[in-house]
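Work Package 3 (structural annotation) set out to generate three-dimensional models for the target panel prioritized at the project kickoff. During this period the team completed the workflow that converts sequence records into discrete structure tokens, so that structures can be stored uniformly alongside our sequence database. As a representative example, we reproduce one entry of 411 residues exactly as it appears in the project archive.
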Amino acid sequence: MAAPGVVVLGGYVNALGVVRALHARGVPAVVVRTQSFDIAHLSRCVSSHATVTGVAEQPDLIVDLLERRATDWAGWAVLPTNDEALAALALNHDRLSSRYRLIAPPLEVARHLLDKTVMLASARAVGADVPTHFGPATEETAAGSDLSFPVVVKPLVGYRFAARFGTKLFVANDHEELRRCVALLARAKIEGQVVELVPGRDSDIYQYTTYVDEAGEPRGGLTVRKLRQGPPLFGVARVAEIVRSPDGLEETTLELARRIGLRGIASAEYKLDPRNGRFRFLELNGRSVVYNGLLRRAGLDLPWLAWSDYVTGRLERARPNGWPGVWINLHADVLYSTLYRTADRPSLADFLTPYRRPKLEAVWSASDPLPFLAQWARTARAGAEALAKREHRELVADRARVSASRATRPL
């Protein structure tokens, strides 16, 4: 008997792609939002939603919610769209699997996705070209003479770091900057590693995504090339396209997925190193990606493959269709092109080039407009609040200057 519907954990753009894809196949969805900027819960494709905050620090909060709602969602499938949700399900796999159909790996597999040290060790074992690892993010490593700057300070568990610092990683250009980064991690009690910074542009980043069945066989795959990221240099795609897969990416991704025993989505990111023309392995994800809609439009419907595999048991092979267009997250593209002009300064012609191609908007849908409107409304509110705070600071400063002038005026 098929599950009645799916509980989608997380509500960002990738979750919106999940609920829209499954709604098109007649699968009802509820969304558990975990961030203030989540938008998927507003989609007309969602029957209801719940909110849990603080899951980066306390993943068990998701588990508590699922147990409280077990009667309402009895027998439903559960699909995570962020790493904190993936971690919560992995740590409580046995506890939840008797009540839900978990579209997520157990802990022995998930640890390869969540812990960067374990991930990189597995990647090296299958022959992936991994950036040089200088050691743990400690004072001893920061003082080392073998460092080649700039370097990247990456957390072992990414979602905890992002929740604390609002970014994916730190970049250090010298020993002093590295010591400051190490001190920040130490105060936050977050473990990290110091890794070589692979140079290049955002458009040098490629991501091969496939769906691997229980026997370790791929059911179709596609390579996405990032054209722009948000934030630039170390963010998520905001403009992307499907490209022909460069040699080695598909094979390396599949070998890595098989080595760790991954069943489901396998999405590996690589960066083309301009110094030697080699593709350097960056990370492997085992959950839905931000450009779900792009892959679906191009013939790789990951949410439906996951549902078919874990719920109906009728998993077919995807059939890529060669769609030549580009995927654009308009909100992120405009926002980051405005805010990060020193790091990402395309000319107007370069900025508009993707918009002249066949395109798929990540969020906007005429039949499902609320997520898009909420996304822009939140940005407008944040901008208005920032402007009001600046005006308030200027007013206080003006009053202070007037008071100082009066105090020093001779009687």
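The chain has three domains: 6-104, 132-196, 202-361.
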